[in-house]
Structures are given as C-alpha cells and as structure tokens.
Specification:
5 helices, alpha+beta, 126 residues, 42% helix, four-stranded antiparallel sheet, single chain
Amino acid sequence: MVAAHVELALLEESFGDAAELPPPFSDRIGSAAERTGGLVAFDIRVDGDFAIQRMAAIEYRELGSVLVLLPRQGDHMRCVAVAEDISFLVAELAAVARRPLTEQACFDFRGKASVILSFLRRTEHF
C-alpha cells in the first residue's frame, strides 16, 4: 500500500507546468519521501541494465521500504514494496549510502542492483 502512496506523490509532481522540464530524479525522490513521511535510504544509478537507469529506496519505519525504479525509456517511475527476500540487499545499499563518498566510490552498486532487479523480474513485479 505504501508503494501506491509514493507512486501517487510522484505522479502529482508530473502534472506541473508543461513548459518546465521535470525535476531531477533525486529531487523527485526526496520530495516524494518527504510528502509521504519516509526517508530516502539510497538513490543510485543502475549501470548495465537494459531497462532501468535509476533506483532509489524510501524507508518507512514499521511499514517497510519501497523501491522506486526509473526506466531508460519514458519518465513513468515504478514503485514496488520491498519483499522480505531482498530486504537484506536494500538494507546493505542503504548502509553504504550512509558512508562517506570516498567509501561509496569503492563499492560495486551494480552487483546488488542487478540481483534486486533479477528478483523483481522473476516475481513479475515489472
């Protein structure tokens, strides 16, 4: 249910002034998290995936987390509740995102992101 609230918050932002460019992904994620009472856990580029270019997670204390995926084609973001099967991967990415940038630079986000995306594809979330 939380994923639907995040998706609605992101959709509301897309109805802004048509003459303006949409805000950057990070700004949209931050705004959606703030409007829905969550905290941004991570926001990463997904290099090497054929369909997804960005992935972020928004944490909600007792309710769990939501993944937000930005496709390479189009601007419609997908929101998916984090399943128990991949929650440890999301938690690991969130922990790395809290580290200093010098430490983040040494971490391979692509491997964890590809495992998460593979799980979502296998379970037909997109």
